[in-house]
Amino acid sequence: MELRHLRYFVAAAETLHFGRAAEQLGIAAPTLTVQIQEIERTLSARLFARTKRSVALTPAGEIFLAEARAVLARFARAESVGRRAGRGEIGRIEIGYVGSAVYAGVLQTQVSRFRTTWPEVDIRSNELPMIDLPALVAEGQVDVGFVRMPMALPAGLGRHMIAQDDFCVALPAGHPKAASHAPLRPAQLAKETFVLPEQNAGTVEVARRGRFDAEIVGSPGSLVAVLSQVSLGSVISIVPSVAARAVHLTNTAFRSLAGDPIRSEVAAIFRTRETSPAVRHFIEQIRRSPPIEMRLGVSN
Fold first, then answer.
1. How would DSSP label each residue in the chain?
2. Model confidence over 77-117: pLDDT tens digits?
Protein backbone atom coordinates (compact mmCIF):
# COMPACT_ATOMS: atom_id res chain seq x y z
CA MET A 1 0.00 0.00 0.00
CA GLU A 2 1.30 3.45 -0.93
CA LEU A 3 0.58 6.97 0.27
CA ARG A 4 -1.58 7.59 -2.78
CA HIS A 5 -3.92 4.81 -1.61
CA LEU A 6 -4.34 6.59 1.72
CA ARG A 7 -5.05 9.87 -0.03
CA TYR A 8 -7.65 8.20 -2.27
CA PHE A 9 -9.30 6.57 0.70
CA VAL A 10 -9.39 9.76 2.82
CA ALA A 11 -10.90 11.77 -0.06
CA ALA A 12 -13.62 9.19 -0.57
CA ALA A 13 -14.26 8.85 3.16
CA GLU A 14 -14.54 12.60 3.71
CA THR A 15 -16.89 13.24 0.77
CA LEU A 16 -18.76 9.91 0.87
CA HIS A 17 -19.18 10.46 -2.85
CA PHE A 18 -16.85 8.68 -5.25
CA GLY A 19 -17.56 11.08 -8.13
CA ARG A 20 -16.75 14.20 -6.14
CA ALA A 21 -13.74 12.54 -4.54
CA ALA A 22 -12.39 11.49 -7.95
CA GLU A 23 -12.83 15.04 -9.22
CA GLN A 24 -10.89 16.43 -6.26
CA LEU A 25 -8.10 13.91 -6.88
CA GLY A 26 -8.01 14.58 -10.60
CA ILE A 27 -8.73 10.96 -11.57
CA ALA A 28 -11.67 9.14 -13.11
CA ALA A 29 -14.37 7.74 -10.81
CA PRO A 30 -13.85 4.13 -12.03
CA THR A 31 -10.12 4.47 -11.26
CA LEU A 32 -10.93 5.57 -7.72
CA THR A 33 -13.26 2.61 -7.32
CA VAL A 34 -10.49 0.23 -8.41
CA GLN A 35 -8.02 1.83 -5.98
CA ILE A 36 -10.43 1.51 -3.06
CA GLN A 37 -11.03 -2.13 -3.94
CA GLU A 38 -7.25 -2.71 -3.91
CA ILE A 39 -7.05 -1.24 -0.40
CA GLU A 40 -9.90 -3.45 0.82
CA ARG A 41 -8.25 -6.56 -0.66
CA THR A 42 -4.94 -5.65 0.99
CA LEU A 43 -6.64 -5.17 4.37
CA SER A 44 -9.08 -8.04 3.93
CA ALA A 45 -11.78 -5.68 5.19
CA ARG A 46 -14.68 -3.73 3.74
CA LEU A 47 -14.20 -0.01 4.31
CA PHE A 48 -17.34 1.32 2.58
CA ALA A 49 -20.94 0.19 2.56
CA ARG A 50 -22.25 1.27 -0.86
CA THR A 51 -25.74 1.26 -2.29
CA LYS A 52 -27.05 2.89 -5.44
CA ARG A 53 -28.07 5.94 -3.43
CA SER A 54 -25.51 6.24 -0.62
CA VAL A 55 -21.97 5.59 0.53
CA ALA A 56 -21.13 5.08 4.19
CA LEU A 57 -18.09 4.03 6.15
CA THR A 58 -18.10 0.65 7.84
CA PRO A 59 -16.81 0.40 11.42
CA ALA A 60 -13.48 -0.81 9.97
CA GLY A 61 -13.51 2.15 7.59
CA GLU A 62 -13.99 4.63 10.44
CA ILE A 63 -11.01 3.19 12.34
CA PHE A 64 -8.86 3.10 9.22
CA LEU A 65 -9.77 6.73 8.42
CA ALA A 66 -8.35 7.97 11.72
CA GLU A 67 -5.09 6.07 11.12
CA ALA A 68 -4.86 7.15 7.48
CA ARG A 69 -5.28 10.82 8.45
CA ALA A 70 -2.55 10.45 11.11
CA VAL A 71 -0.12 8.86 8.63
CA LEU A 72 -0.74 11.56 6.04
CA ALA A 73 -0.28 14.28 8.66
CA ARG A 74 3.02 12.74 9.83
CA PHE A 75 4.20 12.48 6.24
CA ALA A 76 3.29 16.11 5.60
CA ARG A 77 5.24 17.17 8.69
CA ALA A 78 8.24 15.05 7.66
CA GLU A 79 8.13 16.50 4.15
CA SER A 80 7.96 20.05 5.52
CA VAL A 81 10.86 19.44 7.91
CA GLY A 82 12.92 17.91 5.12
CA ARG A 83 12.32 20.86 2.83
CA ARG A 84 13.12 23.37 5.58
CA ALA A 85 16.28 21.49 6.52
CA GLY A 86 17.29 21.48 2.87
CA ARG A 87 16.89 25.26 2.81
CA GLY A 88 18.90 25.61 6.03
CA GLU A 89 15.94 26.96 8.00
CA ILE A 90 16.38 24.30 10.67
CA GLY A 91 19.34 22.21 11.74
CA ARG A 92 22.19 22.34 14.24
CA ILE A 93 25.56 24.10 14.28
CA GLU A 94 28.38 23.08 16.61
CA ILE A 95 30.77 25.92 17.44
CA GLY A 96 34.12 25.62 19.17
CA TYR A 97 35.95 28.70 20.37
CA VAL A 98 38.89 30.05 22.34
CA GLY A 99 38.07 32.37 25.21
CA SER A 100 39.50 35.50 23.61
CA ALA A 101 36.90 35.23 20.82
CA VAL A 102 34.23 35.69 23.49
CA TYR A 103 36.13 38.48 25.24
CA ALA A 104 36.37 40.35 21.93
CA GLY A 105 32.62 39.98 21.42
CA VAL A 106 32.94 38.60 17.90
CA LEU A 107 31.38 35.23 18.72
CA GLN A 108 28.38 36.83 20.39
CA THR A 109 27.91 39.19 17.44
CA GLN A 110 27.96 36.40 14.87
CA VAL A 111 25.62 34.12 16.82
CA SER A 112 23.15 36.90 17.62
CA ARG A 113 23.03 38.05 14.00
CA PHE A 114 22.51 34.50 12.74
CA ARG A 115 19.72 33.76 15.23
CA THR A 116 17.87 36.85 14.07
CA THR A 117 17.77 35.49 10.52
CA TRP A 118 17.51 31.76 11.28
CA PRO A 119 15.80 31.51 14.69
CA GLU A 120 15.02 27.79 14.47
CA VAL A 121 18.59 26.63 13.91
CA ASP A 122 20.02 25.13 17.09
CA ILE A 123 23.46 26.63 17.84
CA ARG A 124 25.65 24.91 20.42
CA SER A 125 29.00 26.32 21.50
CA ASN A 126 31.84 25.14 23.72
CA GLU A 127 35.21 26.54 24.69
CA LEU A 128 37.82 24.06 23.51
CA PRO A 129 41.63 23.90 23.43
CA MET A 130 42.71 25.88 20.40
CA ILE A 131 45.25 23.27 19.35
CA ASP A 132 42.41 20.74 18.94
CA LEU A 133 39.99 22.89 16.95
CA PRO A 134 41.39 22.49 13.39
CA ALA A 135 41.21 18.69 13.61
CA LEU A 136 37.75 18.78 15.21
CA VAL A 137 36.45 20.97 12.38
CA ALA A 138 38.11 18.83 9.70
CA GLU A 139 36.62 15.66 11.23
CA GLY A 140 33.12 17.14 11.48
CA GLN A 141 32.84 17.15 15.28
CA VAL A 142 32.80 20.96 15.23
CA ASP A 143 31.30 22.96 12.36
CA VAL A 144 32.93 26.35 12.89
CA GLY A 145 35.90 27.17 15.10
CA PHE A 146 36.88 30.61 16.42
CA VAL A 147 40.64 30.67 16.90
CA ARG A 148 43.65 32.96 17.24
CA MET A 149 45.82 33.07 14.16
CA PRO A 150 48.40 32.23 12.96
CA MET A 151 48.01 28.46 13.08
CA ALA A 152 48.36 25.63 10.58
CA LEU A 153 45.10 24.35 9.09
CA PRO A 154 44.47 20.89 7.58
CA ALA A 155 43.60 20.58 3.91
CA GLY A 156 39.95 21.30 3.26
CA LEU A 157 39.62 24.09 5.83
CA GLY A 158 39.18 27.77 5.08
CA ARG A 159 39.40 30.80 7.34
CA HIS A 160 38.05 34.33 7.56
CA MET A 161 39.51 37.00 9.83
CA ILE A 162 36.79 38.61 11.91
CA ALA A 163 38.78 40.71 14.41
CA GLN A 164 42.26 42.09 14.85
CA ASP A 165 44.07 43.50 17.85
CA ASP A 166 47.62 43.76 19.22
CA PHE A 167 49.63 41.74 21.70
CA CYS A 168 50.48 43.43 24.98
CA VAL A 169 52.27 42.55 28.22
CA ALA A 170 50.42 41.22 31.26
CA LEU A 171 52.38 41.70 34.51
CA PRO A 172 51.74 41.41 38.23
CA ALA A 173 50.56 44.82 39.43
CA GLY A 174 53.52 45.05 41.82
CA HIS A 175 56.09 44.34 39.13
CA PRO A 176 58.66 47.19 38.74
CA LYS A 177 57.92 47.48 35.01
CA ALA A 178 54.21 47.89 35.73
CA ALA A 179 54.93 51.18 37.50
CA SER A 180 56.00 52.89 34.28
CA HIS A 181 53.34 53.95 31.79
CA ALA A 182 55.78 54.03 28.89
CA PRO A 183 55.48 51.20 26.31
CA LEU A 184 57.82 48.35 27.13
CA ARG A 185 60.60 47.52 24.71
CA PRO A 186 60.98 43.79 24.00
CA ALA A 187 64.62 43.86 25.19
CA GLN A 188 63.40 45.01 28.62
CA LEU A 189 61.69 41.64 29.05
CA ALA A 190 64.78 39.50 28.41
CA LYS A 191 65.20 38.42 32.03
CA GLU A 192 61.53 37.77 32.72
CA THR A 193 59.83 34.41 33.19
CA PHE A 194 56.90 33.76 30.87
CA VAL A 195 53.73 31.70 30.79
CA LEU A 196 52.30 31.09 27.33
CA PRO A 197 48.73 31.69 26.21
CA GLU A 198 47.24 29.31 23.66
CA GLN A 199 48.50 31.59 20.86
CA ASN A 200 52.23 31.93 21.51
CA ALA A 201 53.03 34.00 18.39
CA GLY A 202 53.27 37.19 20.46
CA THR A 203 55.81 35.70 22.84
CA VAL A 204 57.88 34.34 19.96
CA GLU A 205 57.94 37.74 18.24
CA VAL A 206 58.80 39.63 21.45
CA ALA A 207 61.74 37.29 22.04
CA ARG A 208 62.89 37.70 18.44
CA ARG A 209 62.76 41.49 18.61
CA GLY A 210 64.44 41.54 21.98
CA ARG A 211 67.08 39.04 20.84
CA PHE A 212 66.66 36.66 23.75
CA ASP A 213 65.42 33.14 24.41
CA ALA A 214 62.28 33.39 26.50
CA GLU A 215 62.23 31.39 29.71
CA ILE A 216 58.91 29.51 29.57
CA VAL A 217 57.60 27.94 32.76
CA GLY A 218 54.17 26.83 31.63
CA SER A 219 51.24 26.97 29.25
CA PRO A 220 48.20 26.68 31.50
CA GLY A 221 45.59 26.83 28.71
CA SER A 222 42.82 29.42 28.64
CA LEU A 223 43.48 33.13 28.84
CA VAL A 224 41.93 33.29 32.30
CA ALA A 225 44.26 30.51 33.49
CA VAL A 226 47.26 32.35 32.05
CA LEU A 227 46.30 35.64 33.72
CA SER A 228 45.64 33.84 36.99
CA GLN A 229 49.27 32.71 36.96
CA VAL A 230 50.38 36.28 36.24
CA SER A 231 48.27 37.62 39.11
CA LEU A 232 50.08 35.32 41.54
CA GLY A 233 53.14 37.50 41.09
CA SER A 234 56.05 35.55 39.61
CA VAL A 235 55.54 35.46 35.83
CA ILE A 236 54.48 37.66 32.92
CA SER A 237 52.73 36.85 29.65
CA ILE A 238 52.32 38.27 26.14
CA VAL A 239 48.57 38.23 25.54
CA PRO A 240 46.01 39.75 23.13
CA SER A 241 45.15 43.27 24.24
CA VAL A 242 41.46 42.31 24.46
CA ALA A 243 42.42 40.87 27.85
CA ALA A 244 43.03 44.37 29.20
CA ARG A 245 39.35 45.19 28.83
CA ALA A 246 37.65 41.87 29.30
CA VAL A 247 39.51 40.07 32.10
CA HIS A 248 39.71 41.80 35.46
CA LEU A 249 41.88 40.04 38.02
CA THR A 250 43.37 41.44 41.22
CA ASN A 251 47.11 42.15 41.01
CA THR A 252 47.23 42.22 37.20
CA ALA A 253 48.40 45.11 35.03
CA PHE A 254 48.69 45.51 31.25
CA ARG A 255 51.26 47.50 29.33
CA SER A 256 51.64 48.09 25.60
CA LEU A 257 54.74 47.10 23.63
CA ALA A 258 57.04 49.63 22.02
CA GLY A 259 57.71 49.47 18.30
CA ASP A 260 55.53 48.23 15.51
CA PRO A 261 52.37 46.53 16.80
CA ILE A 262 52.47 42.75 16.98
CA ARG A 263 49.12 41.92 15.46
CA SER A 264 46.81 39.18 16.65
CA GLU A 265 43.83 37.92 14.65
CA VAL A 266 40.62 36.16 15.62
CA ALA A 267 39.48 34.04 12.70
CA ALA A 268 36.65 31.64 11.98
CA ILE A 269 37.75 28.32 10.48
CA PHE A 270 35.38 26.03 8.58
CA ARG A 271 35.15 23.28 6.00
CA THR A 272 35.37 24.67 2.47
CA ARG A 273 33.09 21.93 1.13
CA GLU A 274 30.39 22.12 3.77
CA THR A 275 27.29 20.02 3.06
CA SER A 276 24.92 21.23 5.80
CA PRO A 277 22.71 24.07 4.49
CA ALA A 278 22.43 25.64 7.96
CA VAL A 279 26.19 25.63 8.46
CA ARG A 280 26.68 27.03 4.96
CA HIS A 281 24.40 29.95 5.86
CA PHE A 282 26.52 30.64 8.95
CA ILE A 283 29.76 30.49 6.95
CA GLU A 284 28.30 32.83 4.31
CA GLN A 285 27.39 35.31 7.05
CA ILE A 286 30.92 35.16 8.46
CA ARG A 287 32.48 35.68 5.04
CA ARG A 288 30.37 38.80 4.54
CA SER A 289 31.56 40.25 7.87
CA PRO A 290 34.42 42.79 7.62
CA PRO A 291 37.16 42.43 10.25
CA ILE A 292 36.66 44.41 13.45
CA GLU A 293 39.67 46.55 14.36
CA MET A 294 40.09 46.59 18.13
CA ARG A 295 42.12 49.21 19.95
CA LEU A 296 41.63 48.48 23.61
CA GLY A 297 42.59 50.36 26.71
CA VAL A 298 46.15 49.20 27.39
CA SER A 299 48.01 51.69 29.54
CA ASN A 300 50.84 53.61 27.87
1. --HHHHHHHHHHHHHS-HHHHHHHHTS-HHHHHHHHHHHHHHHTS--EEE-SS-EEE-HHHHHHHHHHHHHHHHHHHHHHHHHHHHTTSSEEEEEEE-HHHHHTTHHHHHHHHHHHH-TTEEEEEEE--GGGHHHHHHHTS-SEEEEEES----TTEEEEEEEEEEEEEEEETTSGGGS--SPBPGGGGTT-EEEEES--HHHHHHHHHHTS--EEEEEEESHHHHHHHHHTTS-BEEEETHHHHH---TTEEEEPBSSS--EEEEEEEEETT---HHHHHHHHHHHTSPPEE-----B-
2. 888 778 877 877 788 999 999 988 888 889 999 999 999 99
The pLDDT tens digits of the residues spanning 169-210 come to 999 999 999 988 889 999 999 999 999 999 999 999 999 999
Domains in the chain, ordered, with CATH? 3-86 (1.10.10.10), 90-300 (3.40.190.290)
Note if the pTM is more than 0.85. no
